[in-house]
Specification:
By secondary structure, the protein is of the alpha+beta class. The model has no long low-confidence stretch (mean pLDDT 93). The protein is globular. Helix 3 crosses helix 4. It is 45% helix and 18% strand. It contains 17 helices and 20 strands.
């Protein structure tokens, strides 16, 4: 529980801001859809009209189902901060809106006539569906989902919140139609579209995240529970309409940028996957490493046998590699910004502007490709383990003259531009939110220096 200055800040925000669940901001915070038989209703989309079922205790298999009855289903893994959610998991949803707008279960006759493939699939599991919850579904509408709450809240625009998360991760379902998986994500229904994007910016900001990580239930591994009771009290500045509109505009831009970043990283990864890769040794990454032969020549005279001298040399080489790995690990632990460069024939890696790898000399084509690969590693992930990161650095693509290589370089350039734009937009957003929250300098430092925080974006 927060104490001292943290408690004082949270109390002040509670007194001066609106709660997220204030009726002027939201019409509800909803949970996902409960089927009582996820293995039957949740299917993996393969292509138009083709899905893969993953039944419990049996091998997966393909099945033909009409696309019109299948709805994209978002779980926690797809609910990423500011990214338009994408998924390969689809929900078989045997409901539709009636003339009055209410969601109703499709009748047997409707399903047989309009969705014969979906009905045949459901019929193949009739016994299992009837047996749900100790026979509670053994009746004339056995194909219905486990619960009917909130069924009409998913084909509309909303915010989506990952439920078990290390930080506030909120995205906007801008077009509506993304259905939410029970227990994995929650939905926030804003009072109108303008408020939706205002809330998107506020909830993804450092202040709301600071409060969330101090009032939410902690989970293992640095995660927190983002269910209704912990996100409903989050403070939202009661800002003037012009200020809300500005934050909403910035949030729209961030969602566009983060979604584009995701797409560029994926496009680069696709092209990288078809390129042949080098398998360089550690001496390629660290050219100052001594060779085994030189080390054998330095072995103590008491070691007479060649195998003994070689073992001694390998031990000294392992120590030299370990020294380099320790230095690299220190940079990764510090969270330094990594940037690759290829200048005057030399491939280098910088950490916060300081060269940490270099003296790798390549021809222009291979150097440009290796530089793009190193930059992709730095931009598409957050390296944490020096040994694994070093192994990845030693495996650049080698087919520099291929179309895939040239496209890979272009996609990494797009990714780098998007990351730069995101960093500037995040800083601008947090600056604007600090003003709306009326943070003092001490309060701002408290938020930015908090353990686990985003340090200002």
């Amino acid at each position: 529980m927060p104490t001292g200055a943290e408690r004082a800040l949270i109390d002040r925000l509670a007194a001066t801001c609106l709660r997220l669940d204030h009726p002027s901001l939201t019409r509800g915070i909803i949970v996902g859809i409960q089927t009582s038989a996820d293995a039957i209703y949740h299917l993996e989309r393969l292509a138009n009209g083709r899905y893969r079922c993953h039944p419990k205790g049996a091998p997966p298999y393909e099945v033909a189902i009409e696309d019109a009855i299948m709805k994209p289903l978002i779980s926690g893994a797809e609910a990423k901060r500011y990214e338009e959610p994408l998924t390969d998991t689809y929900l078989l949803f045997p409901y539709e809106r009636g003339a009055g707008g209410a969601m109703r279960l499709m009748s047997r006759a409707d399903l047989e006539r309009r969705f014969p493939k979906a009905w045949a699939y459901l019929r193949s599991y009739e016994d299992s569906l009837r047996a749900r919850e100790s026979g509670a579904f053994d009746d004339d509408t056995w194909w219905r989902l486990g619960r009917n709450q909130n069924l009409d809240k998913h084909d509309i625009t909303k915010l989506i919140v990952a439920q078990t998360t290390p930080e506030m991760r909120v995205c906007a379902d801008t077009l509506g139609g993304k259905y939410l998986n029970n227990v994995r994500v929650n939905g926030i229904l804003a009072t109108d579209s303008a408020e939706q994007f205002y809330l998107l910016g506020v909830l993804n900001g450092t202040v709301a995240d600071f409060v969330f990580r101090r009032i939410a239930k902690p989970k293992a591994g640095g995660y927190f529970e983002a269910n209704r009771q912990f996100i409903a009290p989050l403070p939202v500045p009661d800002a003037a309409p012009v200020d809300r509109a500005e934050v909403a505009r910035m949030a729209r831009e961030l969602q566009t940028l983060w979604s584009a970043r995701r797409d560029s990283a994926g496009a680069a990864a696709e092209r990288l996957s078809v390129l042949a890769r080098a398998r360089h040794g550690e001496d390629w990454l660290w050219p100052d490493l001594p060779s085994i032969r030189d080390l054998e020549d330095q072995a103590p005279r008491a070691l007479k046998k060649p195998a003994e001298r070689r073992d001694w040399a390998k031990g000294r080489l392992d120590e030299a590699v370990a020294t380099h790995l320790e230095a690299l690990q220190a940079r990764l632990d510090a969270g330094d910004t990594l940037e690759a460069a290829f200048v005057d024939g030399e491939l280098c890696l910088f950490a916060d502007g300081a060269k940490i790898l270099g003296r790798i000399f390549l021809d222009p084509a291979h150097g440009a490709l290796a530089r793009a690969y190193w930059q992709w590693l730095a931009l598409s992930q957050t390296p944490r383990d020096a040994r694994r990161f070093a192994a990845d650095l030693r495996r650049p693509p080698v087919a520099a003259d291929s179309a895939a290589a040239k496209q890979f370089i272009d996609r990494v350039a797009d990714l780098a531009a998007e990351v730069t734009a995101i960093e500037a937009a995040e800083r601008a957003m947090n600056e604007r939110l600090y003003q709306l929250y009326a943070l003092t300098e001490d309060e701002r430092l408290l938020v930015e220096n908090a353990a686990g925080g985003r340090n200002g974006g």
